[in-house]
Amino acid sequence: MNILFLGAPGSGKGTQSKNIEKKFNIPQISTGDLLRAETASESKMGQELKNIMSSGKFVSDDIVLKLVSKKITSSDCKNGFILDGFPRNLSQASSLDGLLSDQNLSIEYVFLIDVPADLIIKRCVGRITCNTCGKIENEYFSDYREGDKCGEGVFVKRADDNEETVSNRLKVYAEQTEPIIQFYEDKGVLHRIIGGEDGPQRLTDEIISIIKK
Hints:
Blueprint: E1 2-7, H1 13-24, E2 28-30, H2 31-41, H3 44-54, H4 61-72, E3 81-84, H5 90-102, E4 109-114, H6 117-125, E5 127-130, E6 136-138, E7 149-150, E8 153-156, H7 163-186, E9 190-194, H8 201-212
Parallel strand pairs: 1-3, 1-4, 2-3, 4-9
Antiparallel strand pairs: 5-6, 5-8, 7-8
Helix pairs in contact: 1-8, 2-3, 2-4, 6-7
């Protein structure tokens, strides 16, 4: 069972990926994690990645695809995988389609987590994270505030979690990622899940229900 999550930054696709990973025991593939692991391995590609990232350049689609290919053909993914955060544009989606086809694989479920822009901005701008344990809270939806204690740590706010930056992220998403929606809709595998302020569990239950059907 091969699954892809789409959605704007702050839509909750990462949370849903982890919930579905636990439910069905298939690994979540994060391209960020793949890049970090390959860099740490000190392989030839890892050294190449280190040079690229240290110079501030973007990692090419070709390299990301090679890492994804390596992962999905590993024993970890023999029962399927969950992609979160990739593909990010139509070119990557098309290349991924070709890569999977070469392996006699396909994406069976694409879940689009559709959340209103004003709610996404609240989620991102209000997000605070414990600098020790990594726990995430939100100033709009909880009683926690920046600077409050969390165990041995305190809640801090990311510098890029401001309204201007988040609005720019949403603009990039609309320009680059939204065309992928039609790509998977044409394949008949897209499922649109409407997010709201009622927490992630309803979405998880809806996703599980679709898969079990």
